[in-house]
Write a structure and sequence with these properties.
This protein has 238 residues and is an alpha/beta fold. The protein has six helices and twelve strands. It folds into two domains: 7-74, Hypothetical PUA domain-like, domain 1 (Ribosomal Protein L25, Chain P); 81-236, SPOUT methyltransferase, trefoil knot domain (Alpha/beta knot, 3-Layer(aba) Sandwich), CATH 3.40.1280. It has helices at 24-33, 90-103, 123-140, 154-163, 200-209, 223-236, and strands spanning 7-9, 19-22, 41-45, 50-59, 64-74, 81-86, 107-112, 147-148, 152-153, 168-172, 188-192, 212-214. Helix 3 (123-140) links the parallel strand 7 (107-112) and strand 8.
């Protein structure tokens, strides 16, 4: 599959879909920006693991029609990788979301920690983050759209870590031992603090719940960079 192939996001797409049509912004981008023509190949995904290859059969002023040629993939990710990301200034948080989608995150939870400068999470913010996640999924050729959960408190997060339902949990800490792979397989969770880090009490709460303090670089990383490196490492560790 071409690295530059245009991808549609079609939530209703199924393995039985023979043809599909798309209008709106995606049609405009395909027809007016990319200037694709009938006979060219595109991809489409439902964001739940299904990715198909399709041939453009009709492009008019209002919509694009494509015929499904073959199924490229249809399955869930090899492991669930959850990112609990402390709220950051909007631009920084959006970078973390976009790049973590590219490297394999499957679920994202906004987190409010004591040192967060941003402490609110609105429906508008959630809608914008979902739009960014969709764009990153399409750009990277992934077929899995991460779910964006409701904002979490640290106590709520610690209870989930203690439950063990999300597998190995690691929390970024510049002064901790380096992250190393282990024999465990299955799901994993990356926890990233705000720009000023977690307080000692918050870190102790997470460690007491079962999270591992780990570092991913000998350099001091921005929170959004640490999130991407942690997610990438956990997504690869299958």
């Amino acid at each position: 599959m071409s690295a530059h192939r245009f991808t549609f996001f079609l939530p209703a797409l199924s393995p039985e879909t023979a043809t599909f049509d798309v209008g709106g912004e995606e049609h405009h981008h395909l027809a007016r920006v990319l200037r694709l023509s009938t006979g060219e190949m595109v991809s489409a995904t439902n964001g739940r693991g299904l990715l198909v290859e399709a041939e453009l059969t009709s492009i008019d002023k209002q919509r694009t029609i494509a015929r499904v040629v073959r199924v490229l993939s249809d399955g869930v990710p090899a492991r669930r990788v959850v990112l609990a990301m402390s709220l950051l200034p909007r631009a920084h948080f959006e970078v973390a979301v976009s790049q973590c989608v590219e490297v394999g995150v499957t679920d994202m939870w906004p987190l409010v920690a004591e040192k967060c400068h941003v402490r609110t999470w609105s429906k508008a913010a959630a809608a914008r983050i979902e739009k960014i996640a969709i764009a990153a999924m399409k750009q990277s050729g992934r077929a899995w759209l991460p779910s964006i959960g409701d904002v979490r408190s640290l106590d709520s997060l610690a209870k989930d870590v203690a439950s063990g339902r999300y597998g190995r949990a690691v929390v970024g800490d510049a002064g901790a031992p380096a992250l190393v792979a282990d024999a465990r397989t299955g799901d994993a969770m990356a926890i990233v603090g705000p720009e000023a880090g977690f307080t000692d009490a918050e870190m102790a709460r997470l460690v007491a719940a079962g999270a591992e303090r780990v570092s991913v670089s000998s350099n001091r990383l921005r929170a959004e960079t640490a999130a991407v490196v942690l997610v990438a490492a956990l997504a690869r560790a299958v």
